[in-house]
Amino acid sequence: MSMIDFDGEVALVTGGGSGLGAAIAQKLASRGAAVMVSDIDGESAQNVAARHQGQLSRSGTHQDTPTGNLPADALPAWASQHHRGRLGDPEEVSALICFLLSSRASFITGSYHLVDGGFTAL
Ligand SMILES: NC(=O)c1ccc[n+]([C@@H]2O[C@H](COP(=O)([O-])OP(=O)(O)OC[C@H]3O[C@@H](n4cnc5c(N)ncnc54)[C@H](O)[C@@H]3O)[C@@H](O)[C@H]2O)c1
User: Fold this and answer.
1) From ligand 1's centre to the CA of 14, what distance in Å?
2) Are the beta carbons of 2 and 32 closer than 8 angstroms?
3) pLDDT, tens digit, for every residue of 77-119?
4) CB-based pocket (< 6 A), ligand 1
């Protein structure tokens, strides 16, 4: 079975300056996509693009209202409540996004997918 690749594809990743968006941008670029990173924080978008020079094509700034983010000091308490003792890693989310964007997921639509280490199921 061949690897998922995005040669010839173009992706726009909004909120790509950090966290999940940055991991998704990196994953898509490593599979051959031309990726534009957009973020309300233009500097962070440029940093991500610079870190992966040659893979990420461009960066841009998207001026909008910031989304609410989880307070960093709450994360250890959340992690301690998870049966695996940790929260998910951006890499673990970007792997699913990469698959869903690929032709392998051609019949998957209108559904949602949890990446929570089984938290909801237990
Ligand atoms: N449902 C879940 O289980 C789950 C888990 C993790 C994260 N999240 C959510 O996913 C989102 C991303 O999480 P993260 O950990 O990557 O956060 P993060 O703060 O690391 O990254 C968010 C990025 O989006 C950018 N941004 C914010 N508002 C924007 C806007 N209006 N336009 C463009 N860019 C914007 C920020 O500057 C930042 O670079 C958050 O909303 C978070 O709450 C949900």
Assistant:
1) 9
2) no
3) 989 999 999 999 999 999 999 999 999 999 999 999 999 999 9
4) 14-15, 17-21, 39-41, 44, 62, 64-67, 69-70
Please report the pLDDT score of residue 5 as a whole number: 92
**Is residue 78 within 8 Å of residue 100, measured between CB atoms?**
no
Protein residue whose Cα sits closest to atom 7 of ligand 1: 20
Tens digits of per-residue pLDDT, 46-86?
Answer: 888 887 765 555 555 554 444 456 677 888 998 999 999 99
Q: What is the CA radius of gyration of the chain?
A: 16
Q: Which of 13, 14, 39, 64 to mutate to test the pocket of ligand 1 (most atoms within 8 A of CB)?
A: 39
> Which residues, at least 6 apart from 6, have a Cβ–Cβ distance to it below 8 Å?
28, 31, 32, 33, 101, 102
Tell me: the pLDDT tens digits for 6-24?
Answer: 999 989 999 999 999 999 9
Distance 45 CA to ligand 1 centre (A): 13
Q: 16 CA distance to ligand 1 centroid (A)?
A: 9
